[in-house]
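> example.struct
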């Protein structure tokens, strides 16, 4: 790669890292608005609570955006590290070996629950509660991955988030117990 192309690729990763920080913080903030775990009967009793369901919709969206941002950043980081990126399974395997991802199955569970959210229109409140309880649990998995990936990019590639706009907020997510 020429120096200009390399610099451009490094800037792009820095922007992805900033997006991860932003997504992680907003997901964390939305999760704090809900008392976990959710119960199906309680959810049915509050089925017309617009604020609650807007928060739950935000959690769904922010979970998906965080996972997408992490995936893009992992693929891009692997490329900059000179690793194979021809399949995402190879990228996941690399980051499992690097300690960013605990297990490929964790990533796949997050992807599965995210896909269910995008295509399931259930009105059975016990199922809705179960979905969001699992999404809440798996959010911790994504948040930990996001922290590890930002740290790995700094240590291994010398690339940091593009700005510090969300750095302190991102760090505050991990000062509470995950």
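> example.seq
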């Amino acid at each position: 790669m020429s120096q200009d192309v390399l610099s451009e690729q490094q800037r792009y990763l820095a922007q992805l890292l900033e997006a991860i920080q932003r997504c992680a913080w907003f997901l964390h903030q939305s999760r704090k608005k809900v008392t976990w775990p959710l119960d199906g009967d309680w959810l049915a009793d509050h089925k017309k609570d617009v604020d609650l369901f807007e928060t739950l919709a935000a959690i769904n969206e922010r979970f998906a955006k965080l996972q997408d941002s992490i995936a893009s950043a992992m693929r891009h980081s692997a490329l900059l590290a000179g690793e194979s990126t021809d399949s995402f399974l190879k990228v996941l395997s690399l980051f499992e070996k690097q300690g960013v991802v605990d297990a490929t199955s964790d990533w796949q569970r997050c992807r599965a629950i995210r896909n269910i959210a995008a295509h399931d229109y259930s009105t059975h409140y016990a199922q809705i509660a179960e979905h969001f309880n699992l999404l809440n649990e798996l959010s911790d998995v994504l948040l930990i991955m996001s922290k590890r990936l930002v740290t790995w990019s700094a240590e291994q590639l010398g690339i940091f988030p593009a700005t510090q706009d969300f750095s302190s907020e991102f760090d505050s997510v991990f000062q509470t117990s995950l």
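> remarks
The mean pLDDT is 94.
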